[in-house]
Amino acid sequence: MYIDLLTDSGTNAMSSEQWGGILSGDEAYAGARSYYRLQDTCRDIFGYGYIQPVHQGRAAEKVLFPLLLQKGMVAISNMFFDTTRAHVELAGARAIDCVVDAAKSPSIRAPFKGNMDVAKLEQLIVEYGPEKVGLVVMTITNNSAGGQPVSMQNLRETYAICQKYNVPLDIDGARFAENAYFIKRDEAGYTNKSIKEIVGEMFSYSDMFSMSAKKDGIVNIGGILGTKDANSPLVTGIKANCISYEGFYTYGGLAGRDMEALAIGLYEAIEDDYLKYRIGQMEYLASLLDDAGIAYQAPVGGHGVFVDAAALLPHIPYYEYPGQTLALELYLEAGIRSCDIGSYMLGNDPDTRKQLRSEFEFTRLAIPRRVYTQAHLDVIADALIEIKKRANTLRGYRITWEPPVLRHFQASLEPIR
Ligand SMILES: *Cc1c(COP(=O)(O)O)cnc(C)c1O
Question: pTM of whole model > 0.90?
Answer without folding.
Answer: yes
